[in-house]
Amino acid sequence: MINLTDSAVNAIKSAISSSARPISGLRVMIEAGGCNGFKYKMGLAEEPKSDDTVIECDGLKVFVDKKSREHLVGTTIDFVMALESSGFTFHNPTANCSCGKSFS
Fold it and tell me: Cα–Cα distance between 66 and 52 in angstroms, integer?
């Protein structure tokens, strides 16, 4: 359902290891907004919710809520370091905005 690049895995593992609270995975979801109708949202999570799908990627657990599941199928999350900015980008094969942060 969701793929993580090696760069994304390393960035997430670094964030988890530096967290002051116990973290068991990464929550990825969509919400209304962005330049194309929906935007991606992600954050560290202490545990999955009861209706989450739990995906294992290189030893990391990714939690996806029921509402977001259909929109994230086939999405690859990458962590890009560039001179202008660094951060996570989303490559969604079904729809994507040129900013890599939103979709329709």
Answer: 6
Residue count of the chain: 104
Q: What is the pLDDT of residues 60-75, one digit of tens each?
A: 999 999 999 988 999 9
Pairing mode, if any, of strands 86-91 and 53-57?
unpaired
CA-CA distance, 18 to 82, in Å (whole number)? 23
Token digits for 99? 């900013």
DSSP per-residue codes, 4-21: E-HHHHHHHHHHHHT-SS
Element (H, E) at 43: strand 38-45
pTM of the model: 0.83
Examine the pLDDT at 104 and tell me if it is beyond 80: no
User: Which pLDDT score, from 0 to 100, does residue 103 have?
Assistant: 57
Residue 39 dihedral angles phi and psi, to the nearest 5°: -135, 155
Count of CA atoms in the C-beta half-sphere (13 A) of 13: 11
As a whole number of angstroms, the distance between CA 97 and CA 39 comes to: 10
Asked whether the beta carbons of 90 and 97 are under 8 A apart, the reply is no
